[in-house]
From TrEMBL:
Keywords: Membrane, Transmembrane, Transmembrane helix, Transport. The keyword Transmembrane applies. One of its GO terms (cellular component) is membrane. Coiled coil: none annotated. GO terms for biological process: amino acid transport. PROSITE patterns: AMINO_ACID_PERMEASE_1 (PS00218). This is Tpo5 protein. It comes from the Eukaryota. Residues 553-573 are annotated as: Disordered. It comes from Saccharomycopsis crataegensis. It holds the Pfam family AA_permease_2.
Length: 573
């Protein structure tokens, strides 16, 4: 009788979550159909020629962001982190906390993107909001823009490696369901990773016409996967946990960290999963009405991901066996797959669950690959990469869509090179995950901080608005969360660590900063242009009719570069 009541309670919770998701979907249609507010919108445009095909819609942007976050896969592959650091309580409440904080960050970034729609995203905004000089540091805005731009690229690349390589591991772990002694060799995992990169390269080069549909399908696939897994788990599971008991009482951290610190470290799972919203502005040149579409897409993606995560977590927790079974028995199988196996009592059903999750690997990999190539293209367009004239080249796919083909190839090269490092130690992949979150947190936090320093004056008249008093509060909490992520991801998931299980995120971040600094003095200082603002906009005064500001030591003799940077106001109408 208790099991029946528990099952009914869980089913009721699932129905409520589904109703929440339907409300979010209705909000999408309402946002698309709603007219602009009565206030006059003053959108600042950039002095770039429109070269990429502008085809993506709000649903596509939403799908792209949701696919990168890949909620069921992100939660499944990193579930061991909260389980070791507080169990079910950390897993569920950590998701709620990070969802709210991520929503505040997207709101802060959405305000900026609604005023300054640009492919450069965070590094262009850092240039616009930062002071031109600080004490003896001249052209400070170029320096900050350079660092933020490279943090964005490194964050995207390491996120790509993390998603694809953990996806390859997850795919191979299917064989561990039937044979718990199975443990794939590192070389085999690398081969699957290489195949995944090759598929992403092919889709981005040859199937651009289908990207919009792929992004749309990603949302439905993700939600359907969660619902199918939930329903079948509730039908096949023989025993259910008391959810109230699990969510109120935190387990003693098996990681060895104190309770409060363990909870914060447990947030690593949710923080990694929710990353992706700050990358979306890199698609601005390919989105219709970007000043409205990009902010809405970022905010809605958090709402959809948050609702999907709740729907996914509750039934999983209801069917979760004891931690001793999950963490101490059958170590070669991931916790989520063991939950599937124990709860469903069926290898066939477990295979179905894992195959559904593998579909999210496909969509997430394509999404992160696409955005990474666009961030590289944008930085090259501002002469921020050596041999920029190669990487900002625009070609065409078989359907004559304009795409940054060389940037797409360069992305594949970097992903393959970085993926090969995982052969040295499994902890390198974990460091890549931490580096991706930390790098993206820095790149998101800098423009928000500079916007506050400027009194949020340069946000006036944007297409996506927050009332001033709430704006300061939202911005402040957003900056706090970005800084907190730097601390959280510096800790290993267990207090008793070795050189093999150590978290090297702090070291990789230090190496990243040194490399970016060396590249600045050897190349960027004399070549990096920063964003090209429309001549009718003055960065400092925000008044019309001012002349365009640019670094005096830039060499403008490259005809190719001049052609790429001609203004084309019609493209922004």
């Amino acid at each position: 009788m208790q099991n029946i009541l528990s099952s009914q309670s869980i089913a009721s919770s699932t129905l409520q979550a589904r109703a929440l998701l339907e409300n979010v979907q209705n909000a999408i249609h309402n946002l698309e159909d709603s007219d602009a507010e009565n206030e006059v919108e003053e959108i600042e445009h950039f002095k770039y020629k429109q070269e990429l095909s502008r085809k993506l819609t709000l649903q596509s942007v939403l799908g792209l962001s949701v696919s990168i976050m890949s909620v069921p896969l992100g939660q499944s592959t990193t579930m061991i982190v909260p389980l070791l650091n507080g169990g079910a309580g950390t897993l569920f409440w950590g998701w709620i906390v990070v969802c709210i904080l991520s929503l505040l960050v997207t709101t802060s970034l959405g305000e900026i993107s609604g005023k300054y729609p640009t492919n450069g995203g965070v590094y262009h905004w850092s240039f616009i909001f930062s002071p031109r000089s600080i004490k003896k540091i001249t052209n400070f805005n170029y320096l900050t823009s350079w660092y933020v731009g490279w943090f964005l690229i490194v964050g995207n690349l390491t996120m790509g490696v993390s998603i694809m390589f953990s996806g390859a591991q997850f795919f191979l772990s299917i064989f561990g369901i039937a044979d718990t002694t199975y443990h794939p060799h590192a070389w085999l995992t690398l081969v699957v990773y290489i195949l995944l990169v090759a598929i992403c390269l092919f889709v981005n080069m040859k199937c651009y016409n289908f990207l919009d549909k792929i992004n749309r399908v990603a949302v439905y696939w993700t939600v359907s996967t969660v619902l199918i897994i939930d329903i079948l788990l509730l039908l096949f599971s023989q025993e259910f946990n008391d959810l109230k008991e699990m969510l109120i009482n935190f387990e003693t951290p098996r990681s060895g960290w104190p309770r409060s610190l363990a909870f914060l470290i447990g947030l690593q799972q949710s923080a990694f999963t929710f990353q992706g919203y700050g990358m979306i502005p890199s698609m601005t040149d390919e989105v219709k009405d970007p000043e409205k579409t990009i902010p809405k897409g970022m905010v809605l993606s958090i709402l959809v991901a948050g609702a999907t995560g709740i729907i996914f977590i509750l039934p999983i927790l209801a069917c979760t066996p004891q931690l001793d079974v999950l963490l101490d028995v059958e170590a070669n199988i991931l916790p989520i797959e063991l939950i599937f196996k124990v709860s469903s009592q069926s290898i066939l059903i477990s295979f179905l669950f894992v195959i559904l999750l593998c579909g999210t690997i496909f969509f997430g990999s394509i999404g992160i690959y696409t955005i990474t190539s666009r961030s590289i293209y944008s930085m090259a367009r501002d002469n921020g990469l050596p041999y920029s004239h190669l990487w900002n080249h625009i070609g065409a796919d078989p359907n004559l869509n304009k795409i940054p083909n060389n940037a797409i190839y360069l992305t594949a090269g970097w992903l393959l090179l970085m993926g090969s490092f995982t052969l040295l130690s499994p902890s390198i992949l974990y460091s890549f995950m931490g580096t991706s979150v930390v790098s993206l947190a820095i790149s998101n936090g800098v423009p928000i901080f500079f916007s506050m320093v400027n009194g949020r004056k340069k946000l006036k008249g944007g297409a996506f608005k927050v009332k001033k008093i709430f704006g300061y509060l939202i911005n402040s909490i957003s900056i706090f969360w970005c800084l907190l992520m730097l601390v959280i991801f510096s800790f290993p998931i267990e207090a008793h660590f070795t050189t093999y299980t150590m978290n090297y995120t702090s070291f990789t971040l230090f190496v990243e900063i040194v490399a970016i600094t060396v590249l600045w003095f050897s190349f960027g200082k004399n070549h990096f242009q920063g964003p090209e603002i429309d001549e009718s906009f003055n960065i400092e005064s925000n008044n019309r009719g001012a002349t365009y500001l640019r670094l005096s030591n830039i060499n403008d003799n490259d005809d190719n570069d001049n052609d790429n940077h001609n203004s084309d106001d019609d493209d922004y109408d």
